Give the backbone structure.
Amino acid sequence: MKHSPAFERRGIVEGFFGPPWSQRHRTKIFEFGAARGMNTYLYAPKDDPYHREKWRRPYPPPRWQEMEHLIRCAQRFNIDFVYGFHPGKGLVFSSAKPTRILLAKAQRFYDTGVRTFAVLFDDIPSRLTREKDRKRFAGSLARAEGTWLAEIIARQPASWKDVDWWICPSYYSEDPLLARAFGRFENQFLERFSETLPATAAFLWTGPKIVSETITADHVRRIRSRIDRRLILWDNYPVNDLSMRNDMNLGPLGGRDPNLLDVAYGYLNNPLLQETLSFVPLGTCFDYAARPGDYDPERSWRRTIVERYGSASLPYWRAIRKFCEQEIHARKKKIVAHVTASDAASFRAAVDYVRKHRRTPWACELEPWMRRLQNRLTADNP
């Protein structure tokens, strides 16, 4: 891969479980991200029924108008809108009908200017569930997923010379949690996947863990030795859905190797569910993706806070961030967090700061965490 100061694809994958972001917020994120080098947005909110549960159905007129507006908004900021299909639930891989349905739905997006599509098989059972599929693919889900995308590409209209296809395999991380949640995966999944996956396709990968503390170039290089395709990192930071719903990741992105851009085609972040607060960590993610070699986490974080809230707010946001990080640490270690005497004053000042801004969207989003902080202050430092 050619060397560059930035990832070729950089931006957001809206891929969380929970209420999808509002159109108004997406517009603001596009503007904010574009100014920091964002050029890609993968639309994949799990709770959009027409993306996942009802993926076969076209968007009804009011929803399609919203989608068209969102696509044009992304285009206005020179951001590539990538539509994600999530067809895995109940899919019969050996049937031709689902591929026809997908391409018919994709045509509507193509006519609106969308030129990149993703087929996402994350978070489905790890084994083929239909006997018909087991016979055709010799019991291999990996081969079925690669073949299915190959058939889509083979059957797409001949005029679609400029379309790029991505895929997220069911095995998207080496994290043992995947098998515990969805069942044991077949041996050499990625190698079997690569046997049928078209050479032109890119695949999504979350790193050594579903939520990775660190991602190194050596790790990505090893994965690409198993499947020689363009790799796009789907980084689950700062997302806080499902079991992470009580986490508030307000710190800067860390633990990401600056040399990842030498082995990864793209780098996308799965964001917070909280719309307004998401700007804080995402600002640092965008800075990293745009210039990994020059990225300084703390400098990037300070810049984002100052731009959005003013330099005078820095002490309060440092305290808010510290409390949220302590809570996350306590949850992971299964211990009870306490407020020390040395932190009490700055934490009280932070609570007062948020209270003064209680009518703002970001303060409303922070309210559950500030309530817990106030309770801790009362219990530990009466």
User: Anything to note?
Assistant: The chain has a mean pLDDT of 96.
